[in-house]
Design a protein that fits this description.
Radius of gyration: 24 Å
Number of domains: 3
Number of strands: 4
Distance between the termini: 48 Å
Order of helices and strands: HHHHEHHHEEEHHHHHHHHHH
Shape: elongated
Structural class: alpha+beta
């Protein structure tokens, strides 16, 4: 164990658990000001008992609070729902992304991941042009993308999903500069299960990756600046998932009036994009007027289809696999045992967390890293078992 308590680690663990300073202070029986002093490294815990209490309440190993990892170069994080999500929930996801970056740092030392090749776009490139350029670079043609997550991972962008404590978090992304293979990490909330919504969230983050500056501090943007970037990412997502050259032909065949919604329901099976996004794209392509678009949206609103559309519970997409399969492969090939993997993460990558947390962050099957419990029997029980 390291000798110096790391107040920054205390702060990260508290934020990760979604806990306020006052709440944790009450749980461990100390003053809020005392805990704050620990977090800003102005004071050290008087003895090990307080650290053990903190460890128990936050469910992080004691060693975690004595680690001083080298910071991994990362960028700002783009949140699709920045304007509607409280800072508390955003900071939770920021800490999760930091932990994910540390786990990836270990994995990329043992696994050769696909390399992400950025597009070389001029500054004036429109979202429509960028979407076409990415489709061409990835050889996707102009048809529907069946499983966008698989396509993204095949081109070197990491994807993961985990449950979030609010439905206001859709997806978020970050640039990670590790070793000789810098890449992007996209995370989305698996509170959502609809393929059409997940695909649009992922394509939205691709828009940020292709179009926007990652060295800026997103929290410093004005409301209007943020809205502009979000609109550009939305426009990119629509153009990427619904290319004009092919989708417009389908949209032109839509019947007039409310019957169009039934037609777009069928198109949803083909394009795996929400009905709302498709009629908005049709409007933007000049296939329908603003009045026609607004009429269809009002009908969907009356039917309760703005929150949950037809086929949302039917259409599914592939789950993220790149990070998950890399860990499973290391275990199956005998590079690490479960215990050795967690020890490696702790000793050489300065992230001492419970295996359950790695499973959660990478959406691994339960039990992948958690050793099976050994049940101890008394002699009498063993005798009875043998009968």
């Amino acid at each position: 164990m390291k000798s110096q308590f790391n107040g920054e680690r205390l702060k990260k663990a508290r934020i990760y658990r979604g806990m306020k300073v006052a709440e944790l202070a009450e749980r461990v029986g100390c003053q809020r000001q005392t805990l704050s002093m620990y977090e800003i490294c102005k004071s050290q815990p008087a003895d090990s008992k307080i650290v053990e209490l903190i460890s128990r309440e936050l469910d992080f190993p004691v060693d975690f609070f004595y680690e001083h990892p080298e910071p991994i170069p990362t960028s700002t994080i783009y949140f699709r729902s920045l304007l509607t999500t409280s800072k508390k929930y955003r900071t939770e996801q920021v800490v999760k992304m930091e932990f994910l970056a540390q786990i990836y740092s270990l994995l990329q030392d043992y696994i050769e991941f696909p390399r992400y090749e950025p597009l070389c776009l001029v500054e004036e490139t429109t979202p429509e042009e960028a979407a076409t350029a990415l489709r061409n670079a990835w050889g996707l043609g102009y048809g529907p993308v069946e499983n966008l997550i698989t396509v993204v991972e095949q081109h070197g962008i990491l994807v993961t999903s985990f449950s979030t404590s609010t439905d206001d978090v859709d997806a978020f992304s970050q640039f990670i500069d590790i070793g000789d293979n810098p890449t992007y990490l996209i995370a989305y909330s698996n509170n959502k299960t609809s393929a059409s919504r997940i695909h649009f969230d992922i394509a939205h983050e691709l828009g940020h990756i292709c179009l926007h500056e990652w060295s800026d501090e997103i929290e410093s943007y004005t409301k209007e600046e943020f809205k502009q970037r979000e609109q550009q990412a939305n426009d990119f997502a629509a153009a990427f998932l619904l290319p004009e050259i092919s989708f417009k032909q389908d949209a032109l065949r839509a019947p007039a009036g409310s019957k169009a919604l039934m037609y777009y329901k069928q198109l949803k099976k083909k394009w795996r994009v929400s009905i709302a996004a498709m009629i908005r794209r049709a409007r933007d392509l000049g296939v329908m007027t603003m009045d026609e678009y607004q009429t269809l949206i009002k009908i969907m609103q009356r039917r309760g289809q703005r929150k949950e559309e037809p086929l949302d519970d039917v259409l599914i997409t592939a789950s993220p696999a790149l990070l998950k399969t890399s860990i499973i492969m290391l275990l199956q090939e005998g590079v690490f045992s479960r215990r050795e993997f967690m020890e490696e993460l702790s000793s050489n990558y300065n992230l001492t967390i419970k295996p359950e947390e790695v499973e959660y962050l990478l959406d691994l099957p339960v039990g992948t890293l958690v050793p099976p419990k050994v049940v101890a029997f008394s002699p009498l029980q063993i005798k009875q078992q043998g009968k």
